[in-house]
Structure formats: C-alpha cells, structure tokens
Design goal:
The structure holds two protein chains of two kinds. Chain A is an all-alpha fold. Chain A is about 80% helix and about 0% strand. The radius of gyration of chain A is 18 Å and the shape is globular. Chain B has helices at about 1-25, 60-65, 70-80, 110-130, 135-165, 175-200, 200-210, 215-220, and strands at about 85, 90. In chain B, strands 1-2 form a two-stranded antiparallel sheet. In chain B, helix 4 (about 110-130) packs parallel to helix 6. The model of chain B is unreliable at about 10-25, about 60-105 and about 215-220 (pLDDT under 50). The interface between A and B is large, with 38 and 39 residues.
Chain lengths: ~110, ~220
C-alpha cells in the first residue's frame, strides 16, 4: 500500500492560488488570506502532530490497537499537507523569513 | 460511591492483563498490521524469510523459525544481506538493532529529556529577554531558526520515508530515518508551541479576523 502525495496536495495548491489571487485582485484583504492559511496550518499541525504523538505513546507503551495503522496512514497524509502548507506559510511571511536568515548588517550592505 | 470504587478496583487486573498482552505483542508489528506486503507501510519493514511479507506483521513467523533448522540456516544467509531472487527484495536485518549506535537508538525516543531541554532553553532565553540582556528580535530569531530546523528535518525525513515506501527502496538507513524523524518532530512540536506563545497576539487576532470579521468590517 502506497501513500497518496499528489491527490492530497492538489486541493491545497488550488486553494492557496485561489485565496492568493483573490487578495491580489483586492477582493479580500491580505490579513484574511494570511489568517485563513494560519488557521489551516494550525489545524493540520493539530491533526498530524496529534496522530503522531498518539502513535509515539502507543509505540513506547507497546500498545497495539486496531486504530494504529489508520492513525499511521492519516499521520502520513496530513503530514504531506503540513509540509506543503508550511511552504505557503513561509511564502506569506517571506520578508520575516529573509530577515531570519540574513542579518540586518548584511541586508544594509547589499 | 462504594460500588464505583469496587468496580474501578475490579477493572485494575483487567487493565493490567491488557497492558501485559500489549507488551507481549511488542515484538510483533508496532502498528498492529497483519501480513503487511513489500515494501511495507512503515520504515520498520523487515523480511528475513524472503516471502515478501514483513516478518513483524506475520503472526506465525517466530514459530516457523524455531521449528526448522533449515529455515534458520536460510534466515542467517538472508540476514547477512543476500538478495532474494524470487521477488527481488533486498533483505537487510537492521530493523531492530538493540544497540542503535550513532544513527539511531532503536525504539528509544528521548521524548521527555528533549522536551525538557527545549522548554528550559525557552525559559532561559525568555528570562534573558525580560531582563534586557537579549534583544526581542534575537530571542525570536533563535526560536524561529529552531522551528525551521525542526520543520525541515521532520518533513525532510518524512518525505524521504514516503519516497522509499512508495518506490519500494530498502536501505540500511530506514530505521535511523524513523529515529531522526521522531526526534526532529519533537523539536518541531515544542518549537511550534513556543512560536504560538511568541506570536500569541497574532494568534488571538486570527480567530477574531476569521470568525468575526464581519463585525470588525461594520465598525469601519
């Protein structure tokens, strides 16, 4: 059994492009576009991280439950979405990200 | 009340028995999968018998091994890293190395020590920032960098594992990939909670904007 990568990624890419174009065409405010994706990243983090955390507890305690492999599957699928949404998050806060990697002195020089 | 206490106490042996049965199954598939075919759904896939099914998910694999001497001989050969020509799978016995070593420590994940280390680190930088020794921007930068490292590491190792599973690639690095995925995910989770704490004003504002943005719009 393999994991779906593209099928799950496409709706998120489409959704991001939609809200981004709505913001670019000034139909919605930038703050709304950013907050929608902040909410989605928070939700995927909760689901993916929660499933991973539960799996970790089950592994540590040696517990085998019928939901273990279902948790594993959804942890992976939501994790793929989280990776993608993190890229969107970095795109939303691109200036802050650049500031984080390039010190202020070097930015002034360049 | 008494009845409740008695029923609770009566359930203790049952719970203990259940937890013991869980421990006895710990040597089998940790995800409770049965007859998981190649390449397996997780990085723990191991196939010493060469039948294309993960040994950990096979209920009868241990009994078969103990009864047949010939089987043991072939298992040893396969464990040495020989290729099974029937199904083309490389079977490497590195899934449950108890020693672990540099690239990972088997199933021992340092959840509590790592979490405590990160939380105390945050409290330390927060204290320095509050005392004016550390600038707010530097304090934020340190934790943003750690968060980025956690996300990059966790998603990088996760994507590699998905790639390996989907393409059916088996390498000796698979168990250590799981180990580092878990460790970096702990870093990611703790740093994300710290990130939310640092940006708590924006976090609260997010709910205001999303769930009552009409009300704020009418004010203007």
């Amino acid at each position: 059994m393999s994991y779906e990568v593209l099928t799950l990624s496409l709706p998120f890419i489409g959704g991001y492009l939609l809200t981004y174009s709505l913001y670019k065409f000034k139909i919605i405010k930038k703050v709304l576009h950013i907050n929608i994706w902040n909410f989605i990243i928070g939700l995927t983090f909760l689901i993916g991280g929660g499933a991973g955390f539960l799996l970790l507890i089950f592994l540590e305690l040696g517990m085998i439950t019928p939901i273990n492999h279902v948790l594993m599957y959804w942890h992976v699928e939501v994790g793929i979405s989280l990776t993608l949404i993190t890229i969107f998050h970095i795109h939303c806060y691109w200036r802050s990200t650049k500031k984080m990697f390039i010190p202020a002195k070097r930015r002034v020089k360049s | 009340m008494k009845k409740r206490v008695i029923s609770f106490l009566a359930s203790v042996p049952i719970l203990a028995a259940l937890s013991l049965s869980g421990n006895s199954c710990a040597a089998s598939c940790p995800y409770g999968m049965v007859n998981d075919p190649y390449p397996g759904q997780c990085g723990h896939y191991i196939d010493t018998t060469g039948d294309g099914i993960c040994d950990l998910s096979q209920i009868t694999s241990s009994t078969v091994d103990s009864t047949s001497n010939d089987q043991i001989d072939t298992n040893n050969e396969v464990a040495d890293g020989n290729q099974d020509l029937n199904n083309g799978n490389t079977t490497i016995d590195s899934g449950n190395d108890p020693d672990g070593g540099f690239l990972g420590d088997g199933d021992n994940y340092f959840i509590i020590p790592l979490s405590l280390l990160l939380i105390s680190g945050y409290l330390f930088t927060y204290y320095l920032f509050k005392k004016g020794i550390l600038k707010r921007s530097k304090h934020k930068r340190i934790w943003n960098l750690l968060l980025t490292a956690g996300y990059l590491g966790s998603s990088g190792t996760g994507m590699l594992m998905i790639l390996f599973i989907n393409l059916g690639i088996r390498t000796a690095l698979n168990p250590s990939l799981i180990f580092w995925h878990v460790e970096l995910s702990i870093l990611m989770v703790i740093s994300t909670l710290i990130h939310i704490h640092i940006h708590r004003k924006s976090f609260k504002n997010m709910f205001r904007v999303l769930f009552s943005f009409k009300a704020t719009g009418t004010k203007k």
